């Protein structure tokens, strides 16, 4: 628990830096990092970019997999997760373009795209550290309430609450928010060797309480991390309101 969102983000960015540096700069065994979008990780990306600029950290031997992407939103749409990741992170660091993995929500064959993603994660040896955020309903990636704890990458219909929460990015118009997304599954996240979740703000307080103080529950999918041998939540004071 950190005082505010900024210190939670700084702690998280430092932790990721430490893990990448400990892993060592080998191209044969790159560090595989799972990444989220959303407003919570933005300050984490800001600090990671700063570490790169200060020459404290390189992403040359880092492979990334993003958690999710909207279906049917053009790749260069200002609210696509593709655009988000490039403008907040990838274009500011030395990651190799071929090491960036994102789901393509404009594929003809969405199921094949999801399988391709799972195969690619397996091909590179699995994810070392998955960084995630949560929705106010406790979803991780786009694993909405009711998602199976064993779920893998798939097409998901967004919960109305998620559509509402994300309307602010689409001029407040719920009709403009895509209703479908491609998302890694709960099990895709928990298969990572380490999971780090960043949670900030009083609007996430109920979700945090459900996640850690109640049982493992597929209605609050982030609670799956209770079963993970190496999981950490970094949150601000506001998010602890219901604990
Ligand atoms: C979306 C993303 C999630 C993210 C959530 C919270 O639903 N698919 O991965 O955790 O937004 O976003 P924010 O950090 O903006 O509250």
Automatic annotation (TrEMBL):
Supply the enzyme class, top level: hydrolase
Its GO CC terms are:
cytosol
- The UniProt entry's coiled-coil ranges are 100-127
Entry superkingdom: Eukaryota
Q: Its catalytic activity?
A: alpha-D-glucosamine 6-phosphate + H2O = beta-D-fructose 6-phosphate + NH4(+)
Q: State the Gene Ontology BP annotations.
A: carbohydrate metabolic process; glucosamine catabolic process; N-acetylglucosamine catabolic process; N-acetylneuraminate catabolic process
Which molecular-function annotation in GO is an example for this chain?
A: identical protein binding
Q: What is its EC number?
A: 3.5.99.6
Give the keywords, sorted: Carbohydrate metabolism, Coiled coil, Hydrolase, Isomerase
- Role summary: Catalyzes the reversible conversion of alpha-D-glucosamine 6-phosphate (GlcN-6P) into beta-D-fructose 6-phosphate (Fru-6P) and ammonium ion, a regulatory reaction step in de novo uridine diphosphate-N-acetyl-alpha-D-glucosamine (UDP-GlcNAc) biosynthesis via hexosamine pathway.
Name the chain's protein: Glucosamine-6-phosphate isomerase
Covered range within the whole protein? 5 to 247 of 291
């Amino acid at each position: 628990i950190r005082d505010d969102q900024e210190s939670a983000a700084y702690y998280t960015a430092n932790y990721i830096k430490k893990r990448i540096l400990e892993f060592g700069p080998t191209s044969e065994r790159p560090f595989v990092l799972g990444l989220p979008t959303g407003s919570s990780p933005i300050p984490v990306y800001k600090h990671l970019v700063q570490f790169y600029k200060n020459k404290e950290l390189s992403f040359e031997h880092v492979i990334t997999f993003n958690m999710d992407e909207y279906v049917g939103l053009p790749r260069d749409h200002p609210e696509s997760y593709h655009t988000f990741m490039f403008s907040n992170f990838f274009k500011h660091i030395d990651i190799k373009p071929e090491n960036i993995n994102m789901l393509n929500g404009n594929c003809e064959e969405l199921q094949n795209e999801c399988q391709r993603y799972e195969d690619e994660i397996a091909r590179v040896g699995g994810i070392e550290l998955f960084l995630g955020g949560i929705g106010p309903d406790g979803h991780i990636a786009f694993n909405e309430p009711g998602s199976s704890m064993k779920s893998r990458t798939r097409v998901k219909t967004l919960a109305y609450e998620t559509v509402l929460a994300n309307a602010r990015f689409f001029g407040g118009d719920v009709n403009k928010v895509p209703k479908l997304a491609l998302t890694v599954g709960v099990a895709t996240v928990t298969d990572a060797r380490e999971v780090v979740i960043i949670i900030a703000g009083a609007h996430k307080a109920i979700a945090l309480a459900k996640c850690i103080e109640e049982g493992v529950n597929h209605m609050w999918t982030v609670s799956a991390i209770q079963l993970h041998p190496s999981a950490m939540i970094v949150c601000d004071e506001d998010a602890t309101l219901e604990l």
